[in-house]
């Protein structure tokens, strides 16, 4: 598929002017699963718009412990990259391709200019900030108010939804890393969830019931 095909299928309800701007200024990029797009402390001069696949965004402390924040999926962009690019700030998150992903890379100067010249882009960006803010609140609520078993189950549901499947392929250690817990604790919780018929456990694979 060409960049025109991706823009047309991803933004069918946007104006032709909006689509033309993305096509003319953007650059189509393909990112392999596991490839890092944004590192903590790194500079970011472009804004990614996802047109296929998904990106996982995590926070990291000084000791290297990670905390999962949210996924970026088709038709979405990252508020953190906007902040880095438009305000010339270092990245405070790590973004990694969850699967083979296609994105349109928008130069920062174009993105900044469109904020005043292209109302649809401005609305797109404002909606992005609102969505990411809600997801950040969701993460905070999970840490503050949910038991870890509830967080694990919700994490599995979110991951399955991103992949449009009823199962996820990952290790207990990967779950522990994303939730800033230990593998032993996560394994114990997964066994309880299986006993309660919420999930089925297989080798490096979990089925949601």
Description:
This protein has helices spanning 3-10, 16-25, 79-87, 108-117, 119-145, 148-162, 172-178, 183-195; strands spanning 27-31, 36-38, 46-52, 55-60, 66-72, 94-97, 101-107, 167-168, 199-202, 205-208. It has a four-stranded antiparallel beta sheet with strand order 2-6-4-5. It has a three-stranded antiparallel beta sheet with strand order 1-7-3. Strands 8-10-9 form a three-stranded antiparallel beta sheet. With 209 residues, it is an alpha+beta fold. Helix content is 47%, strand content 23%. It is globular. It is built from eight helices and ten strands. The longest helix has 27 residues, at 119-145. The model has no long low-confidence stretch (mean pLDDT 91).
Topology (elements, then pairings):
Layout: H1 3-10, H2 16-25, E1 27-31, E2 36-38, E3 46-52, E4 55-60, E5 66-72, H3 79-87, E6 94-97, E7 101-107, H4 108-117, H5 119-145, H6 148-162, E8 167-168, H7 172-178, H8 183-195, E9 199-202, E10 205-208
Antiparallel strand pairs: 1-7, 2-6, 3-7, 4-5, 4-6, 8-10, 9-10
Summarize the model shown.
This protein has helices spanning 3-10, 16-25, 79-87, 108-117, 119-145, 148-162, 172-178, 183-195; strands at 27-31, 36-38, 46-52, 55-60, 66-72, 94-97, 101-107, 167-168, 199-202, 205-208. It is α+β, with helices and mostly antiparallel strands.
Give short descriptive properties of this protein:
209 residues, three-stranded antiparallel β-sheet
